[in-house]
Amino acid sequence: MHVAAAPAPILPRQLATPQPSPSSQEEEPPAPPSLKDRFSSAVGDGLNALAYTHKALPNFIYPSVFGTAAEKAQIWQTLDSLPMYDAVRPISISVRESLGSSNLLGVTRPAINSIELNRTGIGMTNPENFRYTLIHEIGHTRDYEGGVVSVITGGHSSSDPFGAPPYVSRYAGTLKQEDFAETYAEYRLNPARLRHVSEEKMDAMERLDRPNFMQAFVDREEFRETGKLIARGLEVPYLRWGLGLMTQVAAYSLAASGVGEVISGVSNKDTMRAVSGGTQLAAGASLMFSYKHPVLGFVALGALGAHRGLEIAREKGARQTASYAALAGGALGGMVGGIAAPLGLTMLGYQAAGPIGGAVGLVVGGVLGNRLGAAAGAHAGLALAG
Ligand SMILES: [Zn+2]
Fold first, then answer.
1. Which of 28, 108, 252, 352 is the most buried (most CB within 10 A)?
2. Contacts of residue 79, Cβ cutoff 8 Å, sequence gap at least 6
3. Predicted local distance difference test score (pLDDT) of residue 275
4. Would you state the pLDDT for residue 30?
């Protein structure tokens, strides 16, 4: 009954359609950087900074929800019944008129964690089935919580006791991923029955159902309401998918450019350049795996700060010892600024002006916190070493 697509790192076909045709965005001839170029490069830097912040810190931005008013109300009711750290896992939940077959009730794209539900699927007019299907799909996002990285390395369903009987439903026996999602839905909706069917799967779900200390920290009104407002603001078709992909791509491209810098530094015998590439690589890799442990997010912010510190040292023509002091100062400042500014300004902004203030605080803190913190730390390091 509960058919959902097998998780695979494919992009939905629809994503290709709304993009402008290539001819409309042909490269402009090279020219000295105009005000427009400088503006777009500043916007690009700001978006990257936000993407890094989003990957490094606990998520509190709820999914963007698409459907009729009644469907949206049902979805929000279900989301509010879940622990916050599971409710914020999907990036979007869309109710579509049809998913091609009335047997297919929902689909999750695990690489970006977007969920689609079938309005005309069998039994979907029954609120209980609708709710069960949504929680089943959220189970898939729990399974593949690291997005593309999880798709490559395998989700929770790849390890015991999933993919082996006893199963909570016949559908759970079709695929290990479906076993996980069905078990998750049973755990949320009918835990007594899950314990009766499989003590082992119940234990596995209980082990997964613990917020880490950062997820627990953001589970408060300021972040919840700000996260809901941002989600509603992003209820523009495909925008959330684009942003979701962008945050993942930002981490890979950071790691890739780090690798390039290390290679070029080593081949040109430029130690500082190789070290600088190493900080980028460390930042990118930590961002990719930050879903595994919150400390990796802090490491990423520290590595980004270290990289900024080295840039500042280079601009000032600092010697090697002073450069290492700038690196250390940048790492510390970047970590403190990268954590404290977005989280602190969200809370302050919310207290001053409600969810809008929270959102402004998050953006300002996310764009500037890590870089300003790193710059302050690097200058302090240079002064101490100088
Ligand atoms: Zn499924």
1. 108
2. 62, 63, 87
3. 96
4. 60
Determine the distance separating the centroid of ligand 1 and the alpha carbon of 190, expressed in angstroms: 17
| CA of residue 250 to ligand 1 center, whole Å | 29
Set out the domains of the chain in order of their start, with CATH numbers. Answer: 59-212 (3.40.390.10), 228-385 (no CATH)
Cα 156 to averaged position of ligand 1 atoms, centre (Å): 14
Q: How many residues does the chain have?
A: 386
Distance 176 CA to ligand 1 centre (A): 10
What pLDDT shows up at residue 31?
66
Whether the model pTM is above 0.85: yes
Please check whether residue 183 is in contact with residue 323, taking contact to mean a CB–CB distance below 8 angstroms. no
For residue 27, pLDDT beyond 90: no
Compute the distance from residue 117 Cα to the ligand 1 centre, in Å: 11
Q: Across-strand partners of 3?
A: 104
Identify the CA nearest to 177 among candidates 148, 213, 141, 205. Answer: 141
> Burial level of 152, CB count in 10 A (0-12/13-18/19+)?
exposed
Q: How much distance in Å is there from the Cα of 173 to the middle of ligand 1?
A: 11
DSSP 97: S
Per-residue model confidence as pLDDT tens digits over 227-284: 999 999 999 988 999 998 899 999 999 999 999 999 999 999 999 999 999 999 999 9
* Rounded distance from Cα 238 to ligand 1 centre (Å): 22
- Given a contact cutoff of 8 angstroms between Cβ atoms, the answer to whether 248 and 147 are in contact is yes
Residue 7 has pLDDT above 80, yes or no: no
**Cα four-point dihedral sign 181, 8, 112, 53:** positive
Q: How far is the CA of 3 from the centre of ligand 1 (A)?
A: 6
| CA 4 / ligand 1 centre spacing (Å) | 4
Q: Report which of 253, 309, 305 is spatially closest to residue 281, judged by C-alpha positions.
A: 253
Ligand 1 mean position, distance from CA 83 (Å): 20
| Residues whose CB is less than 8 angstroms from the CB of residue 75 and which lie 6 or more positions away in sequence, other chains included | 65, 67, 93, 95, 134
